[in-house]
Write a structure and sequence with these properties.
Blueprint: E1 3-8, H1 17-33, E2 35-40, H2 42-45, H3 52-69, E3 76-80, H4 86-97, H5 100-104, H6 107-116, H7 123-138, E4 143-145, H8 151-168, E5 176-178, H9 213-221, H10 239-252, H11 256-262, H12 268-294, H13 297-326
The structure holds adenosine-5'-tetraphosphate.
Function: Catalyzes the attachment of tryptophan to tRNA(Trp).
Keywords: Aminoacyl-tRNA synthetase, ATP-binding, Cytoplasm, Ligase, Nucleotide-binding, Protein biosynthesis
Enzyme class: ligase
Length: 332
C-alpha cells in the first residue's frame, strides 16, 4: 500500500469547513486504500504565541474532531506530533540542508509574518515549512493530502528530499501532493476572492464546524453572491455561487451539473436555504460525535498513545538511517 501522511494544527479549536473539505475528508477516504499516518501538529502550533492550557485542550479537541470526521484508529495511525520526538530531530537536519533564500521564498511565512509584524515573527514560524518537510520525509510518504495553500511546502519537501538523496545516497521517498481539484480551495463566504481561513476570514465568512448549527445556517444564508440570478458554476465570473455549489456538491455527493439542473429558474435564496439545511445535517452529528470523544478522555488518550507508538517505530528507523548518512557516530 502506498503511504500518506498529513497533519492539522490544533490552534483554532474548531476545524473550519476549508480544513474539512480541503484535507480531512480526503484523509478519511485514503485510510481505505493507503497506509495512512495523520497527526495533530502541536509543534507547529507554537510557532505563534499560545496559551498552554488552550493548546492542551485544543490538541485533544483536534483529535476528537478527526475521529468524529471518520478516521478509524484501526485503519490509520493517528497521533500527536510532539509524542514523536523524531520530528524535531529530523527537522534540525533539514534546517541545515535548506537554504536561507529558499526558506525566505515561502509565501505562507511572508503572509503570516507580515500580519504579526516581520520583527515579531518567531524563528520557528520561519522554519515551519522545514519542520513540515521532516514530518513528511520521516514516514517515507508517497502522497500528502492537503489543500492548495500547502502546494509550495510540498514542493520544498520534494526539493530537499532530492537534495539529500543526491548528496548522501537514496534515503527518502520523494512525495507528491494529493490535492483534489474540486475542493483544493474553499473560499470565504463573505469574500469569495480569499480562501476560508481561521486567521484571514471575518467571523461571518468562516464556517467553524463546532459552531451552533443555527449560526452556521445563518452564515450560509447571508453568503455573498452576485447581482445576477442564474445558478451556474463559473468560478471566474461567479465566485460566490460557485463556492456554494462546490460545498453543496461535496457534502451531498451530487454532481455540479445535477445541481445546476435542479436550480434552473430558482433564485439564490432557494440554493442557500437548501445548503443551510445540508450544513446543519452535517454539523449536528459531527458536533455530537466530537463531544462523545471528549467525554471519554481516557479512550482518546489511549488511541493517541497507540498511534504514537506505531508512528515512532517508522520515524525512528528513518531518523537512524539519516543520522548515519550524515555522519553521526551511533550512540552505544
Ligand atoms: N480554505 C481552504 N480550502 C481548502 N483547504 C484548506 N485548508 C485550510 N484552509 C483551506 C487545508 O486544511 C489543512 C489543515 O490546515 P492547517 O491546520 O495547517 O491550518 P492552516 O492551513 O494554517 O489553516 P488556515 O485556516 O488556512 O490557517 P491560517 O489562517 O493560519 O492560514 C491543510 O491541508 C490546508 O491546506
Amino acid at each position: 500500500r502506498p503511504r500518506v501522511l498529513s497533519g492539522i494544527q490544533p490552534t483554532a479549536g474548531s476545524f473550519h469547513l476549508g480544513n474539512y473539505l480541503g484535507a480531512v475528508r480526503q484523509w478519511v477516504s485514503l485510510q481505505e486504500t493507503h497506509d495512512a499516518y495523520y497527526m495533530v501538529v502541536d509543534l507547529h502550533a507554537i510557532t505563534i504565541p499560545q496559551d498552554p492550557a488552550e493548546l492542551r485542550a485544543n490538541t485533544r479537541l483536534a483529535a476528537a474532531q478527526l475521529l468524529a470526521a471518520g478516521l478509524d484508529p484501526e485503519r490509520c495511525t493517528l497521533f500527536v506530533q510532539s509524542h514523536v520526538p523524531e520530528h524535531a530531530q529530523l527537522a534540525w537536519v533539514m534546517n541545515c540542508l535548506a537554504g536561507f533564500g529558499e526558506a525566505s521564498r515561502m509565501t505562507q511565512f511572508k503572509d503570516k509574518s507580515a500580519k504579526q509584524g516581520a520583527d515579531r515573527a518567531s524563528v520557528g514560524l520561519f522554519t515551519y515549512p522545514i519542520l513540515q518537510v521532516a514530518d513528511i520525509l520521516l514516514y517515507q510518504a508517497n502522497e500528502v493530502p492537503v489543500g492548495e495553500d500547502q502546494r509550495q511546502h510540498i514542493e520544498l519537501t520534494r526539493d530537499l528530499a532530492e537534495r539529500f538523496n543526491g548528496r548522501f545516497g537514496e534515503t527518502f521517498t520523494v512525495p507528491k501532493p494529493h490535492i483534489l481539484k474540486e475542493t483544493a480551495k474553499i473560499y470565504d463566504l463573505q469574500d469569495p476572492s480569499i480562501k476560508m481561513s481561521k486567521s484571514a476570514s471575518t467571523p461571518k465568512g468562516l464556517i467553524n464546524l463546532l459552531d451552533e448549527p443555527k449560526a452556521t445556517a445563518k452564515k450560509v444564508k447571508s453568503a455573498v453572491t452576485d447581482t445576477e440570478t442564474e445558478i451556474r458554476f463559473d468560478p471566474q465570473a461567479k465566485p460566490g455561487v460557485s463556492n456554494l455549489l462546490t460545498i453543496y456538491s461535496t457534502l451531498t455527493g451530487t454532481g455540479i451539473p445535477e445541481l445546476q439542473e435542479k436550480y434552473v429558474g430558482k433564485g439564490y435564496g432557494a440554493l442557500k436555504t437548501d445548503l443551510a439545511e445540508v450544513m446543519v445535517d452535517f454539523v449536528t452529528p459531527f458536533r455530537e460525535r466530537t463531544q462523545a470523544y471528549l467525554d471519554d478522555p481516557e479512550t482518546l488518550d489511549s488511541i493517541l498513545a497507540k498511534g504514537a507508538e506505531k508512528a515512532r517505530s517508522v520515524a525512528a528507523e528513518t531518523l537512524a538511517t539519516t543520522y548515519d548518512r550524515v555522519g553521526f557516530v551511533p550512540a552505544k
